[in-house]
Amino acid sequence: MRWIWIDRILELERATRCVAVKNVTLAEELLHDHFPADPEGVADARRAEPVFPNPLVIEGMAQTAGILVGHANDFQERVLLAKIRRASFVAVARPGQTIRYDAQVERIDQSGASTTGQVTLIDSATGQSQPMGEIELMFSHIDRAKGDLGLDLPDHNFVFTSQFMDLLYQSGHAPRPTSQA
Amino acid sequence: MAISQDEIHSRVQNVLADCLGVDEDEVTPDAKLFADLGAESIDILDVTFRLEKEFDIKIQESELVPQSVLSDPAFVSDGKVTDAGMAELKTRMPHADLTEFDGDRNVDNFTDIFTVSVIEKFVEAKTA
Questions:
Q1: Domain containing residue A107
Q2: What is the distance between the alpha carbons of residues B80 and A10, in angstroms, rounded to a whole number?
Q3: Which of A25, A50, A20 has the alpha carbon at shortest distance from A118?
Q4: Which residue in A has a C-alpha nearest to residue B63's C-alpha?
Q5: B 69-88 residues with CB below 8 A of A?
Q6: Is A15 left (phi over 0), alpha (psi -120 to 50) or beta?
Q7: Chain A 134-153, residues with CB within 8 Å of chain B CB atoms
Q8: Domains of chain B, with CATH numbers?
Q9: How many CB atoms neighbour CB B105 within 10 A?
Q10: SS (HEC) of A32-65
Q11: CATH number for the domain that contains residue A148
């Protein structure tokens, strides 16, 4: 399984802003479990209702904002999502729609960063967009905090893996990666 | 002009309630951030950022909670803060009353120092 919940980075402005998109598709197996149809024979059985889970929208924002925070220090710091300050939703995403993540740095220092972000839903049928939610996150620069937090972490960069660096390259925001992590 | 104690209390109360997800009436002066209000380590960074924004002040890393003292073998021995460690804490935390902790010195109880009133005194000193 590839734990990457954004498809393309549209904008990346150092220590300021990152915009990414994710296209929701019925080829994603999880949509068939979220939510499946009731078994046949059940009274008032409900049809399947595939919607993209909002917890994964938070993960998408965390990846967008995490890239923004990591990029601020040229990915030399390992950045971990430490806290979901606030997440609110007013809509759900369905197959064929695009989720747009717009993340901004609110504050960044040696210890970590806080970000704010807006999620927008774009309907591919009409091209129109509507607000989907707002998400505020906290990130920790774990190599500075691990002593304080009592963390025992692996040595390799498990945060910004080759998948993320490839995504940056394919989106036109980084040179071609030279090695695979 | 220095901000009044009442205003600091009110604004700190608001920040802590928001950061820690508790009701404002739980944020009493004696309430302990960790034991009573459920704070975790990362919340201190959140509280720090929000206090900076709320009061337009600059807080250096580890200024509010000098956790690094407790991971320094020069200041801790067998799970207890040494005399040198206590001296270091008193220097770095003039906003906190360390009397009770000085009698125990168990690093596991260090977070009990951080009551709401300690945060308010910290802000008072930064905004004076």
A1: 8-39+46-170
A2: 52
A3: A20
A4: A111
A5: 71
A6: left
A7: 138, 140, 145, 147-149
A8: 5-127 (1.10.1200.10)
A9: 19
A10: HHCCCCCCCCCCCCCCCCCCECHHHHHHHHHHHH
A11: 3.10.129.10
**Number of independent structural domains in chain A:** 1
Task: Specify whether A71 is catalytic.
Answer: no
* pLDDT, tens digit (0-9, with 9 covering 90-100), for A8-50: 999 999 999 999 999 999 999 999 999 999 988 888 889 999 9
Scanning A54-181, the segments in alpha helix (DSSP H) are 54-72, 142-149, 162-170
A76: which 2 tokens? 């030399």
Choice among A32, A34, A141, A173 that is catalytic: A34
pLDDT averaged per 10 residues in sequence order, chain A, 181 residues: 88 97 96 91 90 97 97 91 96 97 95 96 94 97 66 72 88 81 47
User: Quick check: A129 and A144 in contact, CB under 8 A?
Assistant: no
3-state secondary structure of A85: strand
Residues B94-115, mean pLDDT to the nearest whole number: 92
Strand partners, A87: A135
Task: Establish if A88 belongs to a structural domain.
Answer: yes
| Chain B residue closest in CA terms to A108 | B49
Chain B touched by A171 (CB under 8 Å): no
